[in-house]
Design goal:
The protein is 56% helix and 16% strand. By secondary structure, it is of the alpha+beta class. It has 2 domains: 78 residues, no CATH class; 45 residues. Strands 1-2-3 form a 3-stranded antiparallel sheet, covered by helices on one side. A hairpin with a 2-residue loop joins strand 1 and strand 2. The longest helix is centred in the N-terminal third of the chain and has 17 residues.
Length: 131
């Protein structure tokens, strides 16, 4: 399961910072790109066209346009928020808890089951809905 909450929160922090300072901080922009390259696995990056586009822009341009860069934090957060949730289960005392996990790190309870096979079945049922 993927959890990109650190990247999501970092993008939000720098977006707020850039708004407050009315301009792009180039060091933060470079850090944002490094976090995307480091934190997002290749198989997930294939499903994030906006982030792919940003990384392609970086590869193709030695000098970045501030108007282009200023929107990156919001674009990245929006794409991570809109990505389908993943489902899993975990032991919860004598029961099993089924939950969803968004790329933003947000978890949401879905069900409590008495057996692990039932929890696993629910996850398998929900998973195809998200793909």
């Amino acid at each position: 399961m993927y959890n990109l909450s650190i990247l999501f929160n970092y993008a939000g922090d720098i977006d707020s910072n850039w708004e407050a300072n009315e301009g792009v901080d180039w060091e933060q922009a470079e850090m944002l790109i490094e976090k995307c390259q480091k934190d997002i696995p290749a198989e997930l990056l294939e499903k994030l066209p906006t982030v792919q586009s940003i990384l392609s822009y970086v590869d193709e341009n030695d000098e970045w346009d501030s108007g282009e860069v200023a929107g990156w934090p919001t674009e990245i957060r929006t794409e991570l928020e809109s990505f389908d949730k993943q489902y899993s289960y975990r032991e919860d005392g004598e029961n099993w808890e089924v939950y969803s996990l968004a790329l933003t790190g947000d978890e949401e309870w879905k069900a409590t089951c008495e057996t692990e096979p039932l929890a696993e079945g629910i996850v398998k049922f929900l998973a195809p809905i998200c793909e």
